[in-house]
Amino acid sequence: MAVLNYTESSRKVEEAIYDRVIPAGEGWMHELEPGQVLRIVDLEGNQAADTLFYHAEDPEDHYSAVATMLGQQNIYLSTGTVLRSESNKGLLKIVADTCGRHDTLGGACSAQSNTVRYAHDTLPMHNCRDTFMLQLSMYDEKYTKRDLAPNINFFMNVPVTPDGGLTFADGVSAPGRYVEMQSIVRTVALISNCPQLNNPCNAYNPTPVRVLIWDK
Amino acid sequence: MNSIWNKTIPAGGKWSGTIGKGKLVKFTALGKGANLSTIMYHANQLTERYNMPDTLKAQHTSHLTKGHVLMSDNGRVLTSIVEDSLGWHDSISGYTSRKETDEKYGITTYQELRNNWLRSGEENFAVELVRNGLGVRDLVPVLNLFSKVFCDKNGDMHYVEDHCYEGATVTLRTEMDTLFIFSNTPNPLDLRNEYSSVPIQIEVFDAEPVKDDDVCVNFRPENKRAFENTWEYHTLLSDSKSVVLK
Ligand SMILES: [Zn+2]
């Protein structure tokens, strides 16, 4: 496996201005001021935090997986990665990462993609895209399905091989691993803490994540 | 077989339009080093669109070739790749922006060069999206037909310069009524400082009905289920007598 990129943070939990646990299968939508730092902690390990960002002053400018990968000509996200919008604005920058690698090619699970990937009878199962849509509907009616672009899967490992394969590997995360990103502009974060029960990546056991915010 | 329609998109050009289900759409590179950035939407429900992650993870692939299908975000097959002379089309490297185009090839303007100014994917897509009642918020990862971009074991992305030869072809079959938007602009990872766009011919033919042994339907069980979702959609739309209860 390729080199992982570990950077610890010096930020202290007791100095955070916001601290919340997102249970497995729940969503979270929250605005970050420029300079604020968001940490997501994988409390029990090998969980997927499906995450999207929007430019708060231009909500139609959503996170872009491709612009983010192109900006560094590398598909894996870690410390130093600038998370870019469709118009190629830097929204946030990853400033610490004790997981070493995060995915932005695998997208979010949905009821419909579950029927394709696993079986037709998985249609009723809870999924990330339902969480995204529920959160968007509660947050502001200006957000619609049109704003659901491919997302980031924090703590997920989706290796791509030189011959064009794509696999879902064992998680590179572990209990307590975290990723931290500093907002460059006013940014809206949208998280679905993945409820997927069909995928061995989380040992078929979705677990909570914790979000913390610092003012700088 | 004679095409029912054909069009050549010049270097830097763009085109958008709806092609109904059950057609073959054949693309031919009229020079080497072609790159056709392509987005697809379900013509009858524009919020349903090509979804790169769903397409790649269902088929366990990061490149696209014959047998693969291009899935929508509703678990259905918009189009399938039924013929391919190249073996690799790119799905992860996006479209060129105006800024990159200016930086790489020098600033060109309409005022100076009239219609020979160098177009960008960003602007081509913006125009055609708006023309179809959509907008830049509807931009999602595109396909780059004719391009090969691979990732090494560290995840670094590499564009392969001599991948596409003159005369290379790829054929999509429409499984749903599909709005296509094409931008014939260079791949963003093509680092040569020559604007390497070449004309691309598009021909449309009527397709044979999909048979039980179809290569795309049978490529993986995931593909079969995506086709079943697509057929279910069409069953519910049609006037089939079997669903009419008296
Ligand atoms: Zn999920």
TrEMBL record, chain A:
Domain of life of the organism encoding this protein: Bacteria
Domain DUF1989: 21-182
PANTHER family registered for this protein in UniProt: RE64534P
Entry protein name: Urea amidolyase associated protein UAAP2
Protein species of origin: Metabacillus endolithicus
Automatic annotation (TrEMBL), chain B:
InterPro entries membership: DUF1989, UAAP1
Domain of life: Bacteria
Signal peptide: none
The DUF1989 domain, residue ranges: 8-179
Protein name (Swiss-Prot/TrEMBL): Urea amidolyase associated protein UAAP1
